[in-house]
Abortive infection system antitoxin AbiGi family protein (Belliella marina), 226 residues
Amino acid sequence: MARISSSTLFNFTDSIDYLVNNLKDGFYCHNTYEKLPLRNNGYRVPMACFCDIPLSLIKEHFDWYGRYGIGIKRTYARKQGVKPVWYVTSESNLVRNLVKQESLSEYERKHLLPYLKQFLGNQAYQSGKEKRKKFYDEREWRYIPDNSLVEFFFGLKAQREKRTAMQNGERMKLDLNQVEYIIIEKESDFDKMINEIRKITNGNKELKFENLIAKIMTAKQIERDF
């Protein structure tokens, strides 16, 4: 029976420079607006997102989030506080009750709201073209920094907030010994990636250059062989 989940969680980005920064400084937490499945409502919170998808099923993910990524051990991610999201639909009484409230409790705002994700909705490809997407297929996990401000929006305020520019986010710590895969787009990215890994590992006795190099594979390899 084919596996539909993985022991590795993947985080993707759209440039090799962002990939290198994540390797050096930890995963960047984008201050993200997340729409909920009722009209004109959503929330914003810093987050680093991961998908629980085996390599054999991950190819479509490239078109949405980019062809550069890092795969880390799920056991390690859980210890860092990474948790699976809760997919909800427009029929969800939970979401309906949240939207009706004028204010949310500290628990709802910090431990519940940031992990709600709409089952189905619109999202733009890397190309900018928007398409209907079943988010449930991503099996998303999230890292939410401690003491993050979670802002809840509804009505016209939510419409305006969706267009608000992203703000600088925090970082999720990354132990490079917990990396399982480093995904680059194409073979021509190898030289830059090798040079950057050499800089990262230089003088660091806890990291082995050869071990990290062995983790590299290209998106084209995955599309061809898996």
Summary: Residues 8-225 form one domain. DSSP finds nine helices and 15 strands in the chain.
